[in-house]
Amino acid sequence: MTVKKRNLTSTALAVVVVGSIGLTGCSAGAGSSGGESGGSGDSTGTLIVYTNSNSDGRGEWITAQAEEAGLDIEIVGLGGADLANRIVAEKNNPVGDVVFGLNNMYFETLKAEEAITAYEPEWAGEVDQESGDPKDGAFWPLVEQAIVTVYDTNKISESDAPSDTSDLWNDSKWDGRYEVNTALGQATPQLILAGLLTQHLDEDGDLGVSDKGWEEVEKYFAHGSPAVEGTDLYARITRDEVDFGVLPSSGIAARDAEYGTKTGVIAPEVGVPYVTEQISVIAGTSKQDRAEEFIDWFGSAEVQGEFAKEFSAYPVNEEARAQALPEVIELIDSLDKQDIDYNLVRENIAAWVEKTELEYLP
């Protein structure tokens, strides 16, 4: 279903290129300048690896492990939307050589823009290709994550916690006690918005969404506590500023260790959004062979298994999954996937974001 469109403001146009949804928290990591050795003709320099999944020590770990494997790489870390836009903008003179961490939605956009190129990695037979790009093999899956609403069971027992996320904004008991991220140019807030709206699709509604759907969005933002830039959700939970918030599943273990929390997760009947991080060669790189070598190495069962243990990840690689932490496997297995038509979301997220920003943000 394609919903009715509006003319988009510059804010909405900023997200339409990438279409939406990506996930892991990001920072501009080491080498964020991007260097000058990408696709400009130098086939011997440092391999430039673009990612939105370099936070919490991931970038440093990958760089060190690659060096041990004889791979000279530089991690360039950007947020999902910025990264996808940058790759598209550079496609006629690429700086990066490999990109990973963005999910299917971003990669579908890069594929449509001919900004990435197909390559079948050595570990292709160890992953479910349906999780990547089964038609053309332009990108391949690495890690799967659930986007979950969390709380500290040291403060709120599982029996007292809401059974559905919608209870947070429909029950006055939780008024102002859950964090909402109003930065809708970012990936995870867009995913939460899409998860809300796709439960209330209506071809005759505004932008293809029923009045009920927009009422839910209005209440979600009106009754939440806006996120504080630079302040971790768990810091706010431990200071009793909020009780609930949204987090990718791989971030739970590290925060429990840091803050002394014991995380509980709301598991709504409709399920929770899932994303799958992908990897691909950037089209036009002069380091094609080395880019393929990096993909073969990084996506291998051995490296993905070590990555899973270090960062509480849930690898798509079936052999690597055996090394994932038991609590991570248990969590993922316990959470149903929300049925979201991501092709529809990709077509309409910019208009949905624009309406939300203009009408519902505090």
TrEMBL record:
Signal peptide: 1-30
GO cellular component, one term: outer membrane-bounded periplasmic space
Transmembrane segments: none
Alphabetized Pfam families for the sequence: SBP_bac_8
Gene3D superfamilies: Periplasmic binding protein-like II
Record GO biological process: thiamine transport
Keywords: Signal
GO molecular-function term, one example from the UniProt record: thiamine pyrophosphate binding
The organism's place on the tree of life at top rank: Bacteria
SUPFAM superfamilies hit by this protein: Periplasmic binding protein-like II
UniProt xrefs under InterPro entries: SBP
Keyword Transmembrane helix belongs to the record: no
Protein name: Extracellular solute-binding protein
Organism field: Mycetocola manganoxydans
